[in-house]
Amino acid sequence: MDFKTHISFEPSEKAAIEELIEGMDRTNLVSVICYFTQEYSAKKLSKLFSRLLPDVSILGCSSSKGIITERGVHFGSVVGVIAIYDSHSDAYGSGLINFSEDELSGDMVRKAINIALHKAGREGEVPSFAIVHSTPGFEESLIRHIDNVFQTPIPIMGASAADNAIKGQWSIFNEDASTNRGFAIQLLFPSKPLASGFSAGYSPTLLKGTVTKAAGRELLEIDGSPAQDVYRQWIHNHVNEKLPKRLKFEFVTQYPLGRIAGSLYDQPYYKLSHPVDVNPNGGIHLFTDIQVGDKVTLMSGDKRELISRPARVIKEAKRQSINNFQVSGAICIICAGAMKYLGDDIHEVYRIIKQEMKDTPFICPFTFGEQGRFINGENGHGNLMISSVTFYSSK
């Protein structure tokens, strides 16, 4: 397997895609994973890729404010891709579902998977890996339905589409269509091994409680008290600082809520929920589902830990490599909230990833939710997480 990244700052979709494709070698090109900022139309990107690369599996997802590749941090209006080259023993296929007011159903997910399997020529088989991109709002149910279709939690790497200011200007696409409400999945049957990672870069505090009232993604009460009051008090107790009346995105990014996802050597690891805003009724809107009975812990994000975490997740994935293989490419999903919290320190994130990856191609978008496979084998969705896949090739 081989990988190449390409970026374009051309303002029009046509000029950007033409520039990207002009730099690509078409021989053995099997898949293109694209990340782009909100200034570009997913519909136009889809049509252009489909016309210019008719036999290639395409998957696209919007990213907040920019992307990272091995050549640097690229902010502004930008389209970036990682091109995947593989041999005749490989297979790649994608499917996309767009829906409006209906709830996500198992039939929708099965349909998208069947389309992807048909394109890959692998009907009835279980893929080695899946890349999943959705618009925000239904990630947990999407993962459950994917697991149900395959009757096993296949390894996934996922990301929720993002925009620059949480105004719904996010979108996804594949070679067939685009949507600002739906999901797309690419199923991979690669010719060489791969390894995935999924981790949080935050530490638990001693402040914790039990959810006693919730509805969907609205956390209403913790231990019988308004969730908003408890959350504010927890932060005040932890740092002796009161929250403003309206939550600031960058501030609460430092203090997500954590739920234990499993344990390793008796040490718990967490999936995170990012508070979005407070409600007049005392509740808190989250970027994840929450349920009555969930145990929640106030988490704290140290900047140095957040800066080093992406490279550590990639390094851990590299440790899984077999002696006969070397790293040939990687995709690393970084939360947009963490990116905004880090500010200029995101360039230090790049430097550390680059130090780990050397000149190996990689791409990192900034998203509003991350999905991946925990070390216990379960797939999950969280916020402020790092999700990655590292690919190998023969030495």
Automatic annotation (TrEMBL):
Pfam families from the UniProt entry: FIST (PF08495), FIST_C (PF10442)
Domain FIST C-domain: 227-374
InterPro entries named among the record's database cross-references: FIST_C, FIST_domain_N
Residue span, FIST domain: 28-226
Lineage top rank: taxon: Bacteria
Name of this protein: FIST C-terminal domain-containing protein
Organism annotation: Vibrio japonicus
